[in-house]
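Quarterly update from the structural biology core.
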Amino acid sequence: MALINCPDCDKEVSTVAYDCPSCGGKLREPERTLFGKLCSLVLGLLSLGLLIELFGGVGVLSHYVFDIPPGTDEDLVIGMWVVVVLIAGLFSFFTRPKKR
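Predicted structure, tokenized:
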């Protein structure tokens, strides 16, 4: 664990610190892990799919993504999309970058 100087107060701080313990100055931002980036990408794609499904007409993507036969109840289809997007959103939320 190496030491660097804080750019704000010029005191020595660990390279793994996010904030300076003396002055509270920000040293670096926490980064999202690869799994977190993947979860965010999947959330974005599913959200885009939900928007296409809502504005393009129900059933446009559903029979490809969920293997739902055409003619299935529209409320059920939209409900399935919303549940899947919410689950992906929770994964994205819980994999966000955090300070340790």
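The beta strands are 3-5, 12-14.
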